[in-house]
Amino acid sequence: MIRLGYACISVKLKNNPNKKTTVAQLNKLEPQERLRKLRQVLQTNFFNLMDLLAYNVENRIFLYRLPSEFVPLATHPVAADWDWAKEFSWDFQKAGEFIRNNGIRLTAHPGHFSILNSDKPSVVEATIADFSYHAKVFDLLGLDDNSVLVTHVGGVFGDKASSLERFAVNFARLPEQVKRRLVVENDDTSFTMREVLELCERLGVPMVFDLHHHHCHSDGEDWTEYLPRIIKTWGNRIPKMHMSSPKSAKEFRAHADKIDPDEFISFVSALADYHVDIVLECKNKDDALLSLRHHLKKRGVDVEVFAAVP
């Protein structure tokens, strides 16, 4: 059985927990006004998060990806004097209680500027800081190790073997609170499912399998043959996967608005022996999830379990 989730933004709700400000806006303000602005944005994001999580529970959605910008400019020097973790400790506690009490699995996907295998030390340092911020948010919420941080291997930089090795070397530098949450996903241009799987097995970290990325970039492997190994990387944690449908034959890498029900049924049929969480990466977000459920119900397909994390 599987559970479905979506990423970051609800198209059904007016407000989402991704409000932000810019460095340019903050630099126009005096220090106290700057802090007031940052606090205002984060407080709004907490209000919106609680509304969104309540909406998710009402709609039996127990898997959700938190926007990376939840804490505005958390790793930027412009916010260096702001102890957001201390100031909002009560809010983190209350949000965490709601998440845990309702069995919601919260995950994150740090931005594409975070590249752990970069050949530029400054980028690696910024990546470690970004990963650490995400892990800190989940730690403050009191979430278990099912709340993972998804990353890609990164760039090829002209030499795959060296790039994979650099990822492994830099992974060893990560703080333990990041290591225990970081998981690696196959991408659509650089590193195939098999290459990512072998890296994950080497490092002892879970692999997130993305079906669409595999269709975009592979060496012709049948992903189902690798499924037991992918599942094994998760140990006692619930495996997490991603699915999206291509926008068109011409724009194959782009995500469609919704999920192709036939493709979805084929995908989950191969997962019948496993309990897997699947994030749907569609332009229509939660609306696409609810639409897919409607199609499945009409066809008499019963594959989704509406349950909390055990």
Description:
The protein has one domain: Alpha-Beta Barrel (TIM Barrel). It has twelve helices and eight strands. An eight-stranded parallel β-sheet has the order 3-2-1-8-7-6-5-4. α11 links the parallel β7 and β8. The two termini are 13 Å apart.
Keywords for this entry:
310 residues; alpha/beta; TIM Barrel
> Could you state the CATH homologous superfamily?
Divalent-metal-dependent TIM barrel enzymes
Shape: globular
CATH architecture: Alpha-Beta Barrel
- How helical, in percent, are the residues? 40-55%
Strand content: 5-15%
Under CATH, the topology can be stated as: TIM Barrel
Count of distinct strands = 8
Helix-strand makeup class: alpha/beta
Quaternary state of the chains: single chain
The Cα radius of gyration reads: 19 Å
Distance between the termini: 13 Å
Low-confidence stretches: none
Widest β-sheet, arrangement of strands: 3-2-1-8-7-6-5-4
Mean pLDDT equals: 94
Number of individual domains: 1
Largest sheet: 8 strands, parallel
Number of helices: 12
Order of helices and strands: EHHEHHEHEHHEHEHHEHEH
CATH class category name: Alpha Beta
Pfam families: UvdE (PF03851)
GO molecular function, one term: hydrolase activity
Protein name: UV DNA damage repair endonuclease UvsE
InterPro entries: UvdE, Xyl_isomerase-like_sf
